[in-house]
Amino acid sequence: MIYIISIPSVVLWVLGIPSLWYWLLRRNTKSLDLTFKKEKLSDDEIGKIHRMQWKYGFMLSGYEQKTFCWEIVIMFRKAALVGSATLLSVISIKTTHLVAMLIIALSIWINIAHRPYSTLSLNRLETLSLVTQAVTLYTGLFYLTGDIKTDQAGSHCFFLVAMIIPNALFLIFWLYWIRIELLKIVYRLNRFNFLFKLLTF
């Protein structure tokens, strides 16, 4: 009975939802092309862009035209991580972590190879995010497998610091690069001068 419910649900969420989004985006190719158009736009074209962004902006914002479906790739990555954590946990925690690290390593390579985001800052931020996840998984593996004994205080501190430092560095770089992106948006809009001054402290 459980398989009758679970298998169709997995197929629906893992394959159905991304496929639906891809179909919707491909269905609006003309409006999608306008959002990446560099030339001056007519009022009608601007209206189409606004409607496109209102409907699908959260799927498109920040990506290059050639990788407008990249959010679907991220959906598959998240589904693969959740699937490995769920299905492989019956084998061992170590196997689950190793497979997750493999998925993240492939994601890092794909992200560097394709550079899906529209700015260098966002591409670097995504790569750094994935590297931080890999380091956190690797250091956390020593705790979960029990390889570090309770009386080994030095080892506990070392792996704890090794886990905290990459996440702290990621947070600092995230704040720095998000500040740059916000400055670009405010400058392009030529509004909210008080916010521009605040961000250029």
Tell me about this structure:
Helix 1 runs antiparallel to helix 4 (70-87) and helix 4 (70-87) runs antiparallel to helix 5 (93-114). The chain is an all-alpha fold and 201 residues long. Helices cover 80% and strands 0% of the residues. The protein has eight helices and no strands.
Which descriptors apply to this entry?
80% helix; 8 helices; mainly alpha; 201 residues; flat
Strand content: under 5%
Q: Assign the structural class, choosing from mainly alpha, mainly beta, alpha/beta, alpha+beta, or little secondary structure.
A: mainly alpha
- Total beta strand runs: 0
How would you characterize the largest beta sheet?
A: none
Mean pLDDT: 76
Poorly predicted segments? none
Helix content: over 70%
Euclidean distance between termini CA atoms: 61 Å
Summarize the structure.
With 201 residues, the protein is mainly alpha-helical. It has helices at residues 2-27, 29-35, 43-60, 70-87, 93-114, 120-144, 153-189, 193-199.
Q: What is this structure's SSE topology?
A:
Blueprint: H1 2-27, H2 29-35, H3 43-60, H4 70-87, H5 93-114, H6 120-144, H7 153-189, H8 193-199
